[in-house]
Amino acid sequence: MVVMEGLANSLRVWSSENIPANSWFYFTNPMYPYRREELAQHVSFFMEATEGRFPVERLVHLANDEAQARLACDLGMTRSFCCNQNCWIDYSVFCIMGEWKQKRFDLVLNTRPERSLKRPHLAAAVDNLCVIKGALHRKEDYFELEELRPRYINKEYISPVEVNDLLNMSRVGGIFSAAEGACYASSEYLLAGLPVVSTPCSGGREFWYSERNSIICEPTVEGVLAGVKGAIECLEKGAFSPSSIRAEHVKLSNLLRVRFIESFAGILSEMGSCADPHVIVRSYLLGGEFIRRSRYPRYADNG
Fold first, then answer.
1. Helices and strands, counts by H and E, the chain
2. Of 126, 133, 92, nearest to 110 (Cα)?
3. Are 48 and 32 in contact (CB under 8 A)?
4. Distance in angstroms (rounded) separating the CA atoms of residues 75 and 34
C-alpha cells in the first residue's frame, strides 16, 4: 500500500491498525517553506499517527525544491526528492488561447485579499490592472483590493476556465509574497505564457523561474511598477516568448512527473507489487483527488 497525503500531519486522524505493515507514505508541502524544526514536526506527527509501526524511511517527502529535499533526507526520510507540487497542475486548463485574444491588462494579480502575506498593495502604482480575488483565509490581515482601482475584479466565484481567460487578456502576472509554497497562481501564469514579476521569495515558486520567464523586483510599489514595465518591454522586444515560457514549464512538469513515477515504480517493486505505476498515476493523480486544488482552485470573494 502506498499512501499519498497533502500533509503528513493529516495521518493523525487515521487508525494505525488500518494501515498495512508494508505501507509507504508520500506527502507534499503545498503551503509554506519549511524550516528544519517544522519538517521534523511532520516526522513526529507521522510516528505518532502510525504508533511507531513504520520506520521514518517509509515517509517520502515530495519537496518543492532541492534544499527541502536535502533537509528531508537529513531527517531520515532518505527516499525524499524534489517533485514540486505544481508539476501536477492540469496544463490543458491553463494554456495559451491564441493570438486572437486581445490584451486588455498590463498586470493580472491572482491573490487573496491579505496584506502582510500576499502583499497585493505593492501593485498600487500599476494602472491597467486585473485582480482575481481569492478566498480570505486571514481575516485579521484583510486588505481591500478595490483600493488598487483595478479595471477588473471578480465579485463572485469564477471557474478555472474563466481564470485562464483573464490570464490570456493580460500581459504579465504578478505575485508578491515573500514566503510561500509552490504557489498555484505563479505556475498558472507561466502555463498561460505570461512572464512573472515576483518579489524575492522562498518556499517553492522560485523553482520555476529563470531569466527567460520572470523578473525579480524589489518588494516596493516602485519596484513592482518597474518590474511590470520591464517585463512588457521584454515581451515587445522578443526577450520573453509566451510559447517558450509555457513550453519550459510543461517540460519541467513532465520531468518531475517522470521522476515521481520512477520513485513510485521502485517502491512498488520492493513491495512485490505488479501494479503499473503509470495507470495509478493517471487515475489517482492526473484524474483524481490528490491534485483537486491544482486542477480546480477556488476563486471567490469570500470563504
1. 9, 10
2. 133
3. no
4. 13
Domain residue extents for the chain: 2-88+253-295, 105-243
Backbone angles phi, psi at 62, to 5 degrees: -85, 90
Top mean-pLDDT range of 29-33, 111-115, 263-267: 111-115
Between the CA of residue 52 and those of 45, 164, 215, what are the distances in Å? 10, 45, 46
CA distances from 68 to 5, 61, 81, 93, 131 (A): 17, 9, 8, 29, 31
| pTM, 2 dp | 0.88
- C-alpha 285/C-alpha 130 separation (Å) is 31
Tell me what pLDDT residue 285 has.
Answer: 61
User: How does pLDDT run across 8-36, given as a tens digit for each residue?
Assistant: 444 443 444 555 667 777 777 655 656 78
H or E segment and range at residue 226 = helix 221-237
Q: What is the pLDDT of residue 14?
A: 44
Q: C-alpha cell of 128?
A: 491597467
Query: At how many degrees (to 10) do helices 184-191 and 160-168 cross?
Result: 60
User: Using one digit for the tens of pLDDT, what is the confidence trace for 223-235?
Assistant: 999 999 999 999 9
The CATH number fitting domain 105-243, selected from 2.20.130.10, 3.30.190.20, 3.40.190.10, 3.40.50.2000? 3.40.50.2000
* Residue 103: φ, ψ to 5°: -85, 115
Report the run of H or E that residue 162 belongs to, with start and end: helix 160-168
pLDDT digit string, tens, across residues 78-101: 999 999 988 888 888 899 997 656
| Mean pLDDT taken over the chain | 83
